[in-house]
Amino acid sequence: MKFNLSLFIFTGSLLFSFSALAQSKSLFNGKDLTGWHADIPKMDDNPDIKSPFLVRDGFLVSMGKPNGHLITDKIYENYRLDVEYRFAGEPGNCGVLVHASEPRALYDMFPKSIEVQMQHKEAGDFWCIVEDISVPNMEARRGPKANWGITEGKERRIKNLTDYSEKPLGEWNTMRIECLDRMLKVWVNGDLVNEGFNCTANRGQIALQAEGSEVEFHKIILTPITKLSN
């Protein structure tokens, strides 16, 4: 006799199946920054400057300054990334970068990548950083085609589908990013906020930003996928 046992677990607003959890892994161990390395340009000439990335009370924290990136040591492809975050003080700017590769490729700061924006009230925007991606209604969301580009001075921002998916300040937000081949899909607190295709990269490192504002990260969970969620 065979049994088909399915177990579902609720965590926050997300529903995981037992089979998904079996493959999932946390990119943050809750104790230190094992598996990550920081790239902080201002530390090149002054190694005494403190890194903006630290672990505090079991949270991974981006203090926001000096600007830079915390980057995974490993390269990933075809995955779902579930991130739980909140602005610890004043609302501001941060982001999750996917398909990251060449460091400091833009403005001698940003690694070649696609940024999924976390800036307050703009969570889910795409920013093209020497990589590109397409979305439906491209001109309405990116501006005139003649201005599009992926380097300095070009129209790199692709606006999200909704600016009203974030929770009140101080509360935890969930961001789900799915990367499959050259497609990218993003949800914030369960709302589909962006969806792109024809990305110029399909694999790379994952990075978190220090971009002016203090942000706490509670969970950073990666799950391999073979198809995008509906």
CATH class category label: Mainly Beta
What best-fitting shape do the alpha-carbon axes yield? globular
Number of domains: 1
* CATH architecture assignment: Sandwich
Query: What level of helicity do the residues show?
Result: under 10%
Low-confidence stretches: 1-22
Topology as a string of helices (H) and strands (E): EEHEEEEEEEEEHEEEEEE
Strand content: 35-45%
Query: By helix and strand content, what is the structural category?
Result: mainly beta
CATH T-level fold name: Jelly Rolls
Work out the helix count: 2
Rg, Å, rounded: 17 Å
Count the beta strands: 17
Describe this structure as you would to a colleague.
It is a single chain. With 230 residues, this protein is mainly β. The protein has one domain: Exo-inulinase, domain 1 (Jelly Rolls). It has 2 helices and 17 strands. It has helices spanning 18-23, 138-142, and strands spanning 8-11, 14-17, 25-26, 36-39, 53-56, 59-62, 68-72, 79-87, 95-100, 113-117, 126-129, 157-158, 173-180, 183-188, 191-196, 205-210, 215-224. The strands form 3 sheets. Strands 3, 5, 6, 8, 13, 14, 15 and 17 form an 8-stranded antiparallel sheet that branches. A hairpin with an 8-residue loop joins strand 10 (113-117) and strand 11. It starts with 7 loop residues before the first strand and ends in a 6-residue tail after the last strand.
